[in-house]
Amino acid sequence: MDLSDPNVAAHDAKIRKSGVKVLSATTTPFVDADAREKKDKENKNSDVAIAPMLYPSGCGLSVWVYQDGGRIISSNLTSCPFTFSTADMDSWLGFYAWFSYNNHVASNVTYSGPASSFTNDYAYWCANGNNTSYRTETYGEVYLGGTRYSAAAYDELTNVPCGT
Asked: In DSSP terms, which residues pair with 71 in a beta bridge?
């Protein structure tokens, strides 16, 4: 979790102050999506290293997954130290069954116009207290100066007392 960003630090403090059980907290940087896709095509069989110059300095996608009583909440934040023109986030929560996490129980898509940060929050109400494993995936894009930047965060949570 990158708490050096004031928006991320404030959001983290707000969540933790509420007394919930934080299950996961992650920050990942945005990268130039078109340049990454081009490098991926050029280097199909190798590990792709993204050059630091491809990052919009200080922009990140942060994800908190926490349990508040009988529900799991995913709170997602896109934050930059400057204003982006548009942005979006798409996030989902799925439980593990039949050898897959593609059993989606909650999701949300959010869009933003010009801003420096915005959130995407959603919750899943637990059907019972059985231990269940979950995965959350959040994808984000920001547009800065005509360039599309993207980020993705994945969190796996095992044995969460929140059954489906």
From this structure: 68, 125
Chain-centroid distance, C-alpha 62: 5
Residue where the block lists tokens 């990268």 = 31
pLDDT tens-digit readout, 64-82? 999 998 999 999 999 999 8
Q: Tell me the mean pLDDT in the region 12-31.
A: 93
**Residue 63 token pair:** 């994800």
Tokens at residue 93, please? 């929560």
Average pLDDT, stretch 48-75?
77
d(CA 30, CA 140): 8
Q: What is the 3-state secondary structure (H, E, C) of 39-102?
A: HHHHCCCCCCCCCHHHCCCCCEEEEEEEEECCEEEEEEEEEEEEEECEEEEEEEEEEEECCEEE
For 120, counting Cβ atoms within 10 Å of its Cβ (0-12 exposed, 13-18 middle, 19+ buried), the class is buried
